[in-house]
Amino acid sequence: MEVNTRVRALEFLIQQKGLTGVLETVPTYSSLLVYYDPRVVAYDALCASIAELAPQATTAVLPPARTIELPCCYDDPELGFDLEAAAKRLALSTDELVGLHAGAEYLVYFIGFTPGLPYMMGMPERINIPRLDTPRTKTPPGSVGIGGIQCCIYSVESPGGFWILGRTPLALYAPDAAEPTLLRPGDRVRFRRIDRAEFDSISAAVPHGRTGR
Amino acid sequence: MIRILDPGPQTTVQDLGRTGQMRYGIPPSGPMDRFAFVVANRLVGNADGAAALECTLVGPRFDVDAPGAMAVTGADMPLTVNGEEALRWATIALKAGDVVKLGPARTGVRSYIAVAGGVDVPLVLGSRATYIRGRLGGVEGRALRKGDALRVVPSGVARPRRVERRAIPDYAGESAIRVVLGPQADRFTDAGIRALLGGPYEVLPQSDRMGARLRGSRVEHARGHDIISDGIALGSIQVPGDGQPIVLLVDRQSTGGYTKVATVCSCDVGRVGQARPGQSLRFQAVGVTEAHRLLRESDAVLEAAVREETA
């Protein structure tokens, strides 16, 4: 967590200072990818400017985190198709597993792999679980899964090895929305347990499954 | 207006791509061969980043409903206007009703069709580039279909220009693709690095705008092929457990958990994008300073490529 905070703080400082020649940045768990134009700034000079900022890269410089609440329907085997199996594997009741999962607050370390897909930490240790032995080839968007020490939400239909506990009716990636991705690096995420009726009504009511970013 | 009569296997609207979105997992997209794309725009008097068409292996057939100028660059696709052969890498004047057709590529994979003014599609996150997997940009985030009608931004008369024959890239050429080793070159054995730089590597048919999949001598890992996920640069050469490299390109995933042995120099990324399935690539390692010198050299080639026609 400490390293990732410093990564995001360094990214914030680089953006804030508007370092010459920097084109864009991609934070991940423990590294920051900096795209730059070598016609505008030399490699050594840019490295020196970044090294100068690095010591200031701490939680203190980061703007306050947003907290995003994601409704999630756990109570329908059609949506949370691995809930029972995961509970069995963890020797918990499905209710206990949902309680532990929905009771935690997650931190978005970074967004990556597919548009809008959050890499989140903060899962209770009790529900750490090895990834699926055989990854499935298709997981529907919005599926909320756990694997290892991570919680993941699929943003587009993709293959994957996470145990799917439920599904959010909100679109993490909506290409037609003004801001296509719902989450940003550094966001705090909480899940709110909803039933199938509420899942269906949110899915039907919100354009792009989105209430705003 | 450009009316698509036959789209070809994959024709998309592209500009120079979107920036600042990779931190949200959205790749830049844009042309696979930046040199050919920019040259096409310059030939019709457009800004370098005006939206144009990228076609793949076989070009489209389309007609236009107004006079204008067009240029076709990139892969060697036979070009006809109303059935008459026309010159590639040069400005072509079109009349209302002209029918343009690009045939199957003889060398290279991707051709670019620029029209004076540029193709008019909405800006999405600051760009008109199409990202098919993410259904974003271009025309409804997809490849063009029969019956699509594209508006063209009005423009003045384009002066005739052309590219000197010697400035036209040889896409069948076998000169080495320059790479800078890293960021995880230390995760490979010396033999693995030697294999990569010894080559050749054959381009596989599964290659696409996301990445070029290669087959050749195994690039052997010293210890494990998994890393803690980090960012993936344009041209990153990722090597999964099977030791077969994948060069990641304009529609790449923004982050990934496989080791990356090297990065293709920006000036050579377009040649990877133009390599046909079955074609062989060889890699040569250079340092960062040399990579930047090569970039300036390729900038100079681009600056000199387009000449005004002298009667």
What's the short story on this structure?
Chain A has helices at residues 2-17, 43-53, 83-90, 94-103, 196-205, and strands at 22-27, 32-36, 67-73, 105-111, 118-121, 136-139, 143-147, 150-153, 158-160, 163-167, 188-194.
Task: Looking at this protein, list some descriptive labels.
heterodimer, A: 213 residues, alpha+beta, Gyrase A, domain 2, Cyclophilin, 2 domains, 7-stranded mixed β-sheet, two-stranded antiparallel ribbon, 11 strands, 26% helix, elongated, B: 311 residues, 8-stranded mixed β-sheet, 4 helices, 14% helix
Plain-language structure description:
The complex is a heterodimer of chains A (213) and B (311). Chain A has 213 residues and is an alpha+beta fold. Chain A folds into two domains: 2-61, Gyrase A, domain 2, CATH 3.30.1360.40; 67-209, Cyclophilin-like (Cyclophilin, Beta Barrel), CATH 2.40.100.10. Chain A has helices spanning 2-17, 43-53, 83-90, 94-103, 196-205, and strands spanning 22-27, 32-36, 67-73, 105-111, 118-121, 136-139, 143-147, 150-153, 158-160, 163-167, 188-194. Chain A has a seven-stranded mixed β-sheet. In chain A, helix 3 crosses helix 4 (94-103). Chain A is elongated. The mean pLDDT of chain A is 93. Chain B has 311 residues and is α+β, with helices and mostly antiparallel strands. Chain B has two domains: 2-167, no CATH class; 177-303, Cyclophilin (Beta Barrel), CATH 2.40.100. In chain B, a hairpin with a 7-residue loop joins strand 18 and strand 19 (246-248). The chains are: A alpha+beta (213), B alpha+beta (311). The A-B interface holds A 11, 23-33, 35, 38-39, 42-43, 110-117, 119, 155-156, 173, 175, 180-181, 184-185 and B 19-26, 124-125, 133-136, 141, 228-233, 253-256, 288-289, 291-292, 295-296, 299.
